[in-house]
Design goal:
4-stranded antiparallel sheet, Gyrase A, domain 2, 2 domains, 7-stranded mixed sheet, globular, single chain, 17 helices, alpha/beta
């Protein structure tokens, strides 16, 4: 089966009987029923399709799913760039990045030199203007179907939360709360949709590296969370487990720092994106020279596009003209295991990360979908 994370909530809505929902993922076939009273969607940040065999060593439930013994496992694709803010909003809205406007981890605010980091974004720019599309949470609520999102309390005043989950009934949790119990209680409380999220695996990939002991410890914790949710599911519920992206480790000698090479920095006014996908906003008239310099230095380690070329590839889906200027004058998409650092523009911890994602390789864009009945 082919599909994307854009299809998950419309398919869940169809299973819940919501008008306008479309079951392109054949969820009804997977669970053997046209309707479900409750659907639990859990997004495991960083759980890429290509990582499942390695995860299985530390995750019995995921190992069982990989073997075909714990529900139906299929492969989906995330949207591009393969980064958390973009993917979460694509999941929440069912729309491609060019339509919803969250086109990367960080973006330049057109007409300024400011860069929005979507993880730390609050109210500037205003979320409803920066991401104007309705979410499926709001659509379900308008149809009279409860849509809950169980999230850390620290997330609730964020712009990204509004952009991705606008209209949901939020259930805040604290770090010392039993998250699995909170999700399970919310699922049992009323029919409808419940959404849960965990960043544990992705954080470990960034900090310790994919395949590291710390990453496997995170996999064990995630698997334990999923196992508890499976055990707590009512009989009339369906569980959907997916992810926002995969990832890969980048060796120290496969990194280029644009701020340490005057040839790469020349003509660049604003740097946005992230290490695997860079948006270079150039000085007036400098775009062609910037692109030529980057092509000479990076060679076949990256694909370079003008803004118009990047839009024409369809990588972002249809691009709303209101959002086009957020894409760089030059777009750098890393191939292989390259990462482009920007040490003068980003926090120092970015350069210390081990695991990365964001580009268009299958290791970064392929994600699983596990479908399981209660």
């Amino acid at each position: 089966m082919t599909g994307s994370i854009c299809d998950v909530l419309p398919a869940a809505a169809a299973l819940l009987g919501v008008p306008g929902g479309t079951d392109t993922l054949a969820l009804a076939e997977a669970v053997g029923a046209d309707r479900a009273e409750r659907v639990l969607v859990v997004l495991v940040d960083g759980m890429g399709w290509h990582l499942l065999p390695e995860l299985a060593a530390s995750a019995p439930l995921l190992s069982s799913a990989l073997a075909g013994a714990a529900g139906r496992l299929t492969r989906l694709a995330c949207t591009f760039p393969s980064t958390t803010p973009t993917s979460l909003v694509s999941l929440g809205t069912g729309a491609r990045p060019g339509e919803h406007g969250i086109l990367g981890f960080t973006l330049n605010v057109p007409g300024t030199d400011r860069v929005v980091n979507h993880i730390h974004w609050r109210n500037d720019p205003p979320p409803a203007a920066w991401q104007p599309l309705p979410t499926w949470f709001a659509r379900l609520e308008r149809a009279g179907v409860a849509a809950h999102a169980v999230l850390p309390a620290a997330f609730l005043d964020g712009g990204l939360t509004d952009a991705a989950y606008r209209g949901a009934r939020f259930v805040p949790t604290r770090p010392d709360d039993d998250y699995a119990a909170a999700v399970a209680a919310t699922l049992r409380s009323a029919p409808g949709l419940v959404y849960g999220y965990t960043a544990d695996l992705d954080t470990a990939a960034h900090v310790f590296g994919i395949g590291s002991p710390g990453w496997h410890e995170a996999a064990t914790r995630v698997d334990a969370l999923l196992t508890r949710l499976v055990e707590a599911m009512p009989a009339d519920a369906v569980l959907l487990v997916t992810a926002d992206h995969g990832g890969l480790n980048i060796a120290p000698d496969a990194r280029v720092d644009l701020d340490a090479d005057p040839r790469l920095a020349a003509g660049v006014r604003v740097v946005a994106g992230e290490p695997r996908v860079r948006y270079l906003h150039t000085e007036p008239g400098a775009a062609a020279d910037v692109r030529a310099a980057w092509a000479e230095i990076l060679g076949d380690r990256a694909h370079l596009h003008s803004r118009a070329e990047a839009v024409a590839t369809g990588m972002f889906g249809p691009v709303d003209p209101r959002h086009a200027a957020r894409i760089g004058d030059v777009v750098v998409v890393c191939a292989g295991d390259l990462a482009v650092l920007a040490t003068a523009h980003e926090p120092p911890q970015t350069a210390r990360l081990i695991g990365f994602h964001g580009a268009a390789t299958p290791a970064e864009t392929a994600v699983p979908l596990i479908v399981r009945r209660g």
